[in-house]
Amino acid sequence: MRSIPVDTSRMVFIAAGSPRPKVKDRQTGEIKYNADGSPMWQLQVLAQVEDNDAETLLISFPAAHAITARLGTPLNVQDLTAIPWETNGRHGVAFAAASIAPMDPRKSVE
Q1: Superfamily in which the 4-101 domain is placed by CATH
Q2: Per-domain residue ranges for the chain?
Q3: Are 20 and 60 in contact (CB under 8 A)?
Q4: pTM for the complete prediction?
Q5: What is the pLDDT of residues 24-52, one digit of tens each?
Q6: Which residues lie across from 30 on neighbouring strands?
């Protein structure tokens, strides 16, 4: 599968909900794990580049435990990639990150 790195240097990310486990099989409820054995999570995120309108992205990421994020939490998204897909005449772009974490509120935004 081809993935395209996304330059996030001018982007701001805000949680649009709480993380949930990524489900591998909807019928059984089986949770998806990555190659390293870490559970995969999904988080709906508002992503904005400078003064442009925000876009909603569903980002998958590995984490041993759910991160603490809720609506409005500023986020640090590391190594975001876009993954184009096509199945049965449907197509789209999936997003994955190496990690997502709440931003440290003690750090100032420059």
Answers
A1: Nucleic acid-binding proteins (2.40.50.140)
A2: 4-101
A3: no
A4: 0.87
A5: 998 999 999 999 999 999 999 999 998 89
A6: 25
